[in-house]
Amino acid sequence: MSRIEEALEKAAKLRVDVVPIPAPSQKPKVHIPPSVITERINVTSQLLVTVNNPHTQAAEEYSKLKTVIVRLTQKGTFLNMLMVTSAVGGEGKSLTSLNLALSLAQEFDHTVLLVDADIRKPSIHSYLGIENSVGLTDCLLDGADFKKALIRTGIGKLSFLPAGRSVTNPAEVFTSQRMKTFFLEIKNRYHDRYIIIDTPPVLPFAETRSLSAIVDGIVLVAKEGVVTLHNIEETLECIKGPPMLGIVYNEAATEFQPDRYNYCREDNA
Question: What per-residue confidence (pLDDT) applies to 174?
Fold first, then answer.
């Protein structure tokens, strides 16, 4: 049995959806924007396939992921606050967060707030080609105006809150009551829109586990050749509580061809 088939079998036992994403081919280019964005961000990174390459196989897989997320979050009470994370670093969780947010926001029915809460290693701003300006940490520690910190991208109905200034104590900031209160406030304030939070990986850092206690659902990104099944099992143990909406199997090997794509569905789906 191949490694991929083992992962799919494991996911089936966990009763979650697995969406395979092909490997990207280019690295993002960073562009310095004006201090105030008043029109649509000019996104040039080819890694943002849901905007720049919407007819590719990778974009189609993100579209399928979006469909799964919408179905699972709108069964009854709207589950609007979602966390995207990974077991370890370098698995593509930030890129998955952004492509998912863009895919949702470009639909007529969905308004999306994307938050870069990976304050240890923020990267979403670089994919969008903008500066990591006033953001989450500034709101938490300096009392910056949340609404003024929001960047309206002009791409569908997507707003973005950058990570903000770097801090020397990210673990203390992330696990603070102030952080939890902040996210609960925006959850209630924007109860009618998706709030997608990109967090640090689970196993190296303890702080993501505290946030998992207040979100409505989790999307776990697992990269082929980087994470092990043991890593995934350990991660799932660490973030028990909110529904595990699915596992994105990122950069699937070439043997994982379109006609072999497998999706592990819930029994009642």
Answer: 87
Partnered with residue 217 across adjacent β-strands are 82
* Distance separating alpha carbons of residues 63 and 43, to the nearest angstrom: 19
CATH architecture of the domain with range 3-24+40-260 = 3-Layer(aba) Sandwich (3.40)
Query: Which H or E element spans position 195?
Result: strand 194-198
Q: Residue ranges per domain, the chain?
A: 3-24+40-260
Radius of gyration of the chain (CA): 17
Tokens of 127: 């994919």
215 close to 83: Cβ distance less than 8 angstroms: yes
Predicted pLDDT of residue 44:
83
Q: Would you list the DSSP string of 138-163?
A: HHHHH---HHHH-EE--STTEEEE--
Per-residue pLDDT, 213: 86
What is the bridge-based pairing of β-strands 158-161 and 151-152?
antiparallel
Residues of the chain with pLDDT below 50 are 4, 8, 12, 15-16, 25-38, 256-269
Task: Pull the structure tokens for residue 223.
Answer: 């990269």
Contact 68, 17 (CB under 8 A): yes
pLDDT of residue 20: 59
The pTM score is 0.81
